[in-house]
Amino acid sequence: MTPKRKGNRRLEAENAAAWFFILPSLIGFIAFFAVPTIRGLSLSFTDWDLFGKAKYIGFANYLTLASDPEFWNSLWVTTKYVLWNIPAQTILALSIAMVMDRATKSTLVRGVILIPWLLPNVIAALLWLWLMDPAVGVINGVIKSFGLKSINFLSSDALALPSLAAINIWRHMGYTALIVFAGMQGFPKEVEEAALIDGAGPWRRFIKIMLPFLRPVLAFVVITSIVGSFQVYDTVAVTTRGGPVASTWVIYLYIFKNGFESYRMGFATAVSMVLFLILIGISFLQMRLSRANESDF
What we know:
single chain; mainly alpha; MetI-like fold; 297 residues; 13 helices; two-stranded antiparallel sheet
């Protein structure tokens, strides 16, 4: 057998092995993501109440939602939630990762900071619903022990949305920190040693060296966090149910209301498609602006 033929056969064997490992995920993607997305797109052009036969109505659902103030309000509320959530979560996760990298690499510490993420969203929401209760909550108990008035965290127009963001920041920052910490493990130590010799301080080393090195990791963290934040539902449904006065009426509650309460499944699917396009656009823009596919090293 010639070397060229032997090389071709080896390449074919490697490709077959690659497809063998990819196939389960590919089947899952097609069955649970691609097919439902195509089906959802087709339903978004129909009038369907979940029970009868879907009736094709063209772009009527999209024209309706474009003029629906509830849709724009829910999109604005969700955007505000993202703006509350993402910067604080990313900064805290980066800080925790830096502490873990510099002070301790204990497996126990990593397990402890991961515990909130392991809790189901509903359990975490119920826990904080009790902790923030103005009458019997532990947090308000501490506040009142200093002679201050209790705070209505989840029943105040001004505080409900930031409080929900705080709950989800607490739940996800440990997981995000572990991803950043894992990215830090590939940092070339000789670069830091060279910076130390040149007299660069800790803050300068962090800004000029560590952050550029972590660009792909941080881009992944920010994109996935934004997508997850736009999809917030269970925490809101358990704690505020969209109130008070629609101050936490996020877009997923709007979709649920139209799809499963008003039985306007075609319209709800159209809203879902719009949200899908928004998230694709945000992800693509973030990938381009952050140059997520490359590092400075």
